[in-house]
Amino acid sequence: MSVPAKLSDVEPRFFTRAQWAAFLLPTLLLALVLPLLNALLPAEHLLWPSHFTLNLYGKYATYAVLALGVDLLWGYLGILSLGQALFFALGGYAFGMHLLLMIGKDGQYKSDLPDYMVFLGYKALPAHWEPFYSFPFATAAVLVIPALIAFVFGWLAFRSRIKGVYLSILTQALTYAAALLFFRNDFGFGGNNGFTDFKRVLGADLNSPDTRRGLYVASVLLLAGVFLLYRWLTRAKFGHLMQAIRDGENRVLFSGYATARYKLFVFVLVAAITGLAGALYVPQVGIINPSEMTPEKSLEAVVWVAVGGRGTLLGPILGALFVNALKSWATRAAPELWLYIIGGLFIVVVLFLPGGLISLPAKFRAAWAKLRPPPPVPTAGAGDLGT
Question: Which structural domain, as residue segments, surrounds residue 76?
């Protein structure tokens, strides 16, 4: 590992023309073509993507944003955070509060209070819920609440120079503690059941095809935007500094950089963006409960990154899509085997494919090059010998 003498000596790289085409084509296909096919074609048409399919792809897109955040921290900064699902769930809870208030008197108890509050005997809406009637406030909370938790935790941890496995354990402990508080209903957020039965967002029916398409498109565009942002960060001078911190933090410290500030900035940025992904996840799935913030969820995200390819950005997206598609199939075909499947997949990737799925094309090319016969060696003629 070597740190540049001056970061200005490092030229940022972003996209070549071919890379722009490779990015824009699937983005347009997913964000424009599929919704148009869903809206314009009849349901019996061969090319019609179902509402369920769009909803499933939208959920996968939010998971991919979560995986990108894990990869930026782990693959580029060297921080293996086992608590990213907490920020995902906090964003979901913040937006879920707004969605729950928008139900109004359409709930089971025909009350202005959310159903679970009526069931638990609440007489009035808690004061801290009142601002969540506002969509802009709820949107801001989706970003600010995860960022604030990440800032407090990161400031304490990075200032104390905690890193490596100890930092991973602390992030896991933070996630477990928060999940326990939510499960026990210490925060008054519905306990095990969480929030569900949402009706509308911005006045639109959440179950209408138009709203579902809009949420799907928003999820895909968020994924595309986050990918561009993270690529810009990793290709710019800041990205080279992140990788230098990953490979040798002490040397970067001796070069005069306050590494704790850089780590804190990335940690908070990823938390805020992950919270936004969680906010889009909730209306598409229709529920948010403490199970979304358990340590197991964060570990799953780490598996997505490892399977796809750590430190590549594109790899975590592929990993999130592949593993969750596999999970969708396994939970229908053999739900009792899913934990064995994901555990075995992780072991296989670590032992035999450390570069992840993204490294497969290069491995195939290398294998093909070995199988190809060597070119014939030209024989020297008499004239070549100088006679």
Answer: 30-39+49-290
